[in-house]
Amino acid sequence: MILVTGGAGYIGSHTCIELLAAGYEIAVLDDYSNSRPEAVKRVQEIAGKTFPVYEGDVRDEALLDKIFKAHDISCIIHFAGLKAVGESVSIPVEYYDNNLNSSLALCKAMKKHNTTRLIFSSSATVYKDGNPMPLDEESDTGCTNPYGWTKYMSEQIFTDAAKANEGWTIALLRYFNPIGAHASGKIGEDPKGIPNNLMPFITQTAIGKIDKLQVFGDDYDTPDGTGVRDYIHVVDLAKGHVAAVAFCEAQSGVHAINLGTGNGTSVLEMVQAFEKVTGVSVPRQIVARRPGDIATCYASCAKAERLLGWKAEKTLEDMVKDSWFWQNSNPNGYEE
User: Fold this and answer.
1) What span, in angstroms and rounded, lies between the C-alpha atoms of 257 and 236?
2) Are 111 and 38 in contact (CB under 8 A)?
3) Which tens digits make up the pLDDT trace of 70-83?
4) Which of 83, 136, 162, 273 shows its CA 20 to 30 Å from the CA of 102?
């Protein structure tokens, strides 16, 4: 059985569907601090399968002990954590506490219960600003914000733990910018409060929940002055995790692997793509840069294709179309 921490979250819920479709048994652990129980119910509806769900904090070692005793956990996929770059600059201590102590708690549980495989939800934010593009796994690391440092430090924790525990296999999946939603329109990204990520900001503006899209800076060294990112459909990303599970069953050691498309898209290009696909205009205003943001970030995904046999398949149009279908089907997210 695979334990999915943060399985009610945006990436976690989509990954649960793909794991179930591939025939894996799962259990979910989530504290719903940035997700909702409704997401798990909808995963079960889409998959036509039920699975055990635990509400709680990954840092709760007694709860982890209970889960590992109740189930034969062969692999962990660790999504749970605080995840907003800007917020991490404002409340760094909370980010270090939550994200690092959850990683430590999982290492202790793995050792205690002889679980040897873990897939970590890492991030492109572990790469140092100023690297030539595209970023590959050998690019210089070093972070510009506390969120990135928690991912970087967690990678180090898992790497050192694997070196000290023979037979452990750790996949450090460094994702770029997931957007989109499940084609059913039943699950998608449901941020609490003002969105931190671009696509829900666009869709909520387009549907009228937000007056104007805020574009954070138009003076970057990019073709149109706005930040360039590698946007990947969340379903492609979820399938990357399924491929990583199979990979870890046959390998040992620690493997850092990028998951992206290899293409850079600017904020304004994304807005224009949205308007073209949907026919809906997005009012916007340029505001100051966000602390911790960098100009350009996109991936080389050759290693993922070589090791996992995986590459992103969905287009920017697919990402926009599925995001808009989710937003229209669920104007208030999971609250309905």
Assistant:
1) 14
2) no
3) 999 999 999 999 98
4) 136
Digit-coded pLDDT (tens) for 148-205: 999 999 999 999 999 999 999 999 999 999 999 999 999 999 987 777 789 999 999 9
Alpha-carbon Rg of the chain, whole angstroms?
19
User: Which of the residues 147, 152, 175, 231 is marked catalytic?
Assistant: 147
CA proximity to 85, closest of 6, 198, 171:
198
- Compute how many other C-beta atoms are within 10 angstroms of the C-beta atom of residue 321: 18
Helix%, strand%, coil% for the chain, nearest 5: 45, 20, 40
User: Annotated catalytic, 147?
Assistant: yes
For 2-178+232-261+301-313, the fitting CATH number among 3.75.10.10, 3.30.70.270, 3.40.50.720, 3.40.630.30 is: 3.40.50.720
In this predicted model, what pLDDT tens digit does every residue of 63-115 receive, in sequence order?
Answer: 999 999 999 999 999 999 998 888 899 999 999 999 999 999 999 999 999 99
Give me the pLDDT at residue 195, please: 78
**76 — alpha (psi -120 to 50), left (phi > 0) or beta?**
beta
Per-residue pLDDT, 85? 83
Average pLDDT over residues 272-293: 93
Could you tell me what percent of the chain has a pLDDT over 70?
Answer: 100
283 upstream amide cis, omega within 30 of 0: no
Instruction: Give kind and range of the element (H or E) at residue 100.
Output: helix 92-113
**Rounded Cα distance, 170 and 38, in Å:** 30
Q: Are 125 and 61 in contact (CB under 8 A)?
A: no
H or E element, residue 217: none
Q: What is the DSSP string of 285-330?
A: EEEPPPTT--SEE-B--HHHHHHH-------HHHHHHHHHHHHHH-
The first and second tokens of residue 280, run together, are 């809906």
